[in-house]
Amino acid sequence: MTAGGVAGPGLRYRSPTGRWVLAAAVLGSGVAGLDATVVGIALPAIGKDFGVGVDALQWVSTAYTLTLAGLLLLGGTLGDRYGRRRVFLIGVVWFGLASALCGFAPDALTLILARGLQGVGAALLTPGSLAILQASFVEEDRPRAIGAWSGLGGVATAIGPFVGGWLISAVSWRLVFFINLPLTLAVVLISLRHVPESRAPGDRIGRLDVTGAVVVTGGLTGVTYGLIEGPVRGWTSPVVLAALAVGIVLLACVVPVEQRASDPLLPLDIFSSKQFSAANGVTFVVYGALGGALFLLPVELQQAAGYSPLLSGAALLPVTAVMLLLSARSGALAARIGPRLQMTVGPFVVAAGLLLLLRVGSGGNYLTDVLPAMLVFGLGLAITVAPLTSTAMGAAPTEHAGVASAINNDVARAAGLIAVAVLPVVSGITGEAYLHPAALDHGFRIAVLVSAAACVAGGIIAALTIRNPPRPAPAGQPDLGLHCALGAPPLRA
Prior knowledge:
mainly alpha
């Protein structure tokens, strides 16, 4: 037991309670991930229904990611201080209510605002889902639990396009939001019955770092708004220039603001672990590439390749199968051999899958043009995600599990946020270009090349910065502190 009578880490992966806790964490994070991907499939239908261009569609996607990225650190801190299960449940309920508001939205502006509210709920539940696993399971079972979490959560994320495509084709894009309601109810019921409460040790609860939350959220908002509105209003527009300037200044103030805070939202000493900083560096590059490519892929399949929403969703199902089969095993392998090899090779495999998407276009065949890309892409994700997440979490102190999870998620979301804002501009897909197959197809190829290059960079960064933890001495032999001349000294978090 930890301070305050809160359950400490003691669950085994194969225990009945452990499986229920894993189910709650997977469903909670999965519903947030599912919503991110399923909305991508719905974007063309939303655009036609409301008669808006790609800039508005970017905001339908970005409004969610923006509030999520801006408030993740606050959500992780609240969980560490007031109880991870409690904040997780608040986030799940909030997310469900905001989903209902999205489903009833009468116009694009209301939908964008409701998506922002969804992001608030996701910011509360997302860091809690991973922190609950880190705080609940015994240390030797955490990598496997996190591997299963990433694999099963990846299934929820990947199956979203298929479910969304079927709902859009059968009824309406609005059902992609209403489907969250029974899922969030299931998470609440499971959590109340099976998930133990946990929080950071100690009875002192300091003041919340509201200033830090405002600076982070305001900075991301300003930069993202400027990047999205620049092609629409013109890069010399006073509104665009002011948004970019304010955003950059606020982001530059994050470190000094947090250094002066008595109870910082972002405890800077957590970055004293080189392993933690390196893992988050790889996360930023790889997830930025994924966020930009996956934003454009459903649009490319529907508008250029002629897929229906259902077929464009089904096209991504092989990623689900590969993630389901291999992610837990990938986490277990990383626990045995260390994460460096997988975090180096995995992004290269993801890049290969992205490059295979260059074959996608009008008149293409699914079996030869899309399926190979999805299989290789899914394999790369299965190799990368579990060790990447486990490394980031394992390099941080357990008492900062919520903050560490929030930072890692925040880095991934911010990377995707920037990529969704920048990649369409870089590739020339602006305004209503997505409605013209030839222009969209040309821009998509540029976007794929940029994303693949970013993944390659992520693999190189991992090779140069990630280190495997020292192996324990064989049973019965004392550890004399001797190491191979080619090995590094024991890592310290």
